[in-house]
Amino acid sequence: ETGKLTGETMLSLVASIHLNESMEGYIDHQKKGGDHSLSLAYVRATILDFRKKVDKNWVGWVEDNIKYIRSNTGVPLNGKRAGVFPSFARFPTYLDHVLQSCQAGRGSDYKVNLSKIRVISYYLQKMAGALFASLHECAERDTTDKQYASNVMRMENSYFFLESIRRRGDELMVLFQKQFVAANAIFKQSTDAYLGWMIKREFKQLHVLFSNISRIRKDVGDKDVPIHVPKSTFIKTLAKETSRDILKERIVAMYERMEKHLSETANFLPLAWKALVRMLYDWFNRWEKMSFSCYNYKLEPSPVEIVRLAKTKVGAVKKTGGGGATLNTPTAGATTASATNPNNLNAKPGGDENNIGKTK
Q1: Closest C-alpha among 356, 227, 231, 247 to residue 300
Q2: What is the pLDDT of residues 115-124, one digit of tens each?
Q3: Contact (CB, 8 A) for 240 and 301
Q4: Is 192 in contact with 119 (CB distance < 8 Å)?
Q5: Nearest Cα to 284, choosing from 217, 209, 189?
Q6: pLDDT the model gives residue 337
C-alpha cells in the first residue's frame, strides 16, 4: 500500500541515525596515519554502505508519500470548507512517531538532532515543502472559489502547520525553519485578505464611501472634500450604515459566516474572530479620523464602542445557542481524529471520512 509506514521503514530510519552517530567513533582525530587511519576509513566506508541501503528504503517511503500529498486527496474541488487537509493533519503525528522511535532505548537526556543528519533533514523538509506545494495548487486551481475559500484553506492549513511545529519544540523549529518562515508569511497574507473581504462584504457602502473620500482628499486636500461629497450625503450614509441595530446585525452575520467557513479541525475560529474585531477597530478608527479631518464629524458609535458591541453581541449569540463554536483558547497540539494512526500517513480516517475538514 502506498505510504504505509511499516516497521521496516521505521527500522531503516532509526538504523540510519544510529549508523550516522557511530561514524564519529571511527574518525582519526589524532591523525596517526598509516594502517590505523586505513582501518578506520574502511570501517567508515562499510558503515556508509549500510547507511545507503537503509536510507534507500526510508527515502522510497517518503517519495511515495510526496506523491500522495500532491494528489490532494480529500480536498473539495471548490475549496469550500476544506478544513485542514488530510496530509497536513497526519504530518505532525508522523513526526511524533519518528521522534518517539528515535528516542526508544535511549536515556532521558538523549536528544536526536535530525537537522544535523543531511539525508533525513533533506527529505523531511522535502515532505513539508510538498505540503505547501499541494496547498498552493489547490488554492490556485480554476475550480477553487477565489472570493474567500482559497484564502481560508491557506489560512487554516498554514496555521495548523505553524502550531504543530511550534508546540513540538526547538528541534523541529530548527529543522523546519525555512518552511516555518514561509508558512508564517502565507498565514499573515491569507488572514489579512480573508478578514478584509469579510469587512468589505458586510460594510460595502462604508468601504466605497471612504475609499472615494480617500481618493478625493489626495487630489484636492481635506478642506475641499465636501465639495465633491457633500456633508449631508456623508452623514446620511453614516446614519444608514452605522446605526447600532445595523452594526449588531452585521457583526452577528460576520461571526456566523466565519463559523461556517472555518473548520473545527484547525480550531482557528477564536483567534480569527479576535483578529477580525481588531481589524474592524482599525478600519473604523481610520474612517473616523478621515471623517473628523474632512467634515469635523465623529463616528457614532465610536470604534471602541463597536469593539464592545462585537464582544457583547457575539457572546449573546453563543449563550442562546446560535453557532456551534466557542471562543476558547486553541488546545495545544490539537490534531484530528483522523491523524491518530502513526502507522500510515495516508490511511483512511476513522469514523465518517466525508466529515473530515467540514463544519457542522
Answers
A1: 247
A2: 888 888 899 9
A3: no
A4: no
A5: 209
A6: 33
